[in-house]
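Q: Structure tokens for this one, please.
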Amino acid sequence: MSSPFRLIPEAVRCASCAAKRAILSELADGFATAYALDREAVLDALREREALGSTGFGRGVAMPHARLDTVEQPLAMFLHLDRDVDFKAADGVPVRLVMGLVSPSDAGAHHLHALAAMSRLTRDERVLHPLFEAQSEEELFAIFENADLRDAA
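A: Here is the predicted structure, written as tokens:
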């Protein structure tokens, strides 16, 4: 089984964001640049989903996600923030790692499998700790490349 979402090196960034709004904007910029998506459409979709409730997953991780008609498969974006940011996570822990996901509007279970895979990755201490400690985008991408996503969904 292949990965339940696509993550390319250009979609992994070290970023400086001081607020949730800036994080969503940075994600939209990243999706636009890495996957040639419409920045405003991505940003609107992420904001709309976030308005339903925080996607702050806990343990310093947020997983903003949305669905768009213009994508054909789940696409991921990863941000390693240079500071802790309040994301209104259920556990109250500020966010340092952000995994964004944009899936097709009709993805249904495939979208949920992609979110589940992201969740398992960020609960795995063998992955989570190195992500927090990583110093470069290359190092971050290598951590994802070495994680076993085949069994994550």
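A few notes: The first strand starts at residue 12 and ends at 15. The mean pLDDT is 92.
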